[in-house]
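REQUEST ID: PR-0412
SUBMITTED BY: lab tech R.K.
PRIORITY: routine
TASK: structure prediction, single protein chain
INPUT:
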Amino acid sequence: MALRLPRPSPRVWLALLLVALGAVLTLVEQRDVRAPGPVPTDSAGEPDFYLEGVTLTRFDAQGRPHQRLETPRLVHTPHDDTTRADTPRTRLLDDDGELWRASGRQGTLGPGGNPLVLSGAAHLESPGEGWQLNTETLNIDTDTNHAWSDSEARITQSSQRVRGDRLDVWFDDDRLQLTGNVRGFHPPEEQAP
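STATUS: complete
OUTPUT:
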C-alpha cells in the first residue's frame, strides 16, 4: 500500500513562488552594488577619506543652509587640509536669499571650506538678471560671497556678450566688474514697425 500525500493548494504554490522570486531579487540587488572606485592618489599625499555621490551643505550663523555643493566624488587630503571635487555643481545664497549657481570640471575647497576654486570651464549664473559667466578658473570666497577670476572671463546675457582679462563679482551687492582689455558686443534694439 502506497502512502499518497495531499496535493498542495494553489495558495501554497503562490507562496513558494513569491519566496523564490524574493530570493532571486535579493541576489540581483546585491550583485548590482558597485564597488568604490580606486583610492585616489595626489601630489598632496594619501587622502584620509573620499566620498562618492556627495551633497555637501554649509549653514550660516543662524543655522540656515546657504551653500550646497554636489559632486560624484569628494577627496580630502590631511597634509594640506584640502578637499577636491570632481565636476562640482554648487548653489550659493546671497544676503537677499537669491540663488547663484556655479560649476566646473574640478573644484577645490581650501582649509575650513574656503575658498572654493572651480577650474576647467568654470560657469556662474546670476539669479534674476539672466547673465552667465564662463572662465577657466573661478575663485569664490564663501564667507564674503565674492567671486573673482584672473583668467579671461566671458559674460553673456541674451544676445549681448562682454569679455575681460579679470573679473570680480560681489553676490550680496549684485555687482560685477570686468577689467583689462574689456570688449563687448551689444546689438541695437530692434525697432517696432
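NOTES: The longest helix spans residues 10-32.
REVIEWED BY: pending
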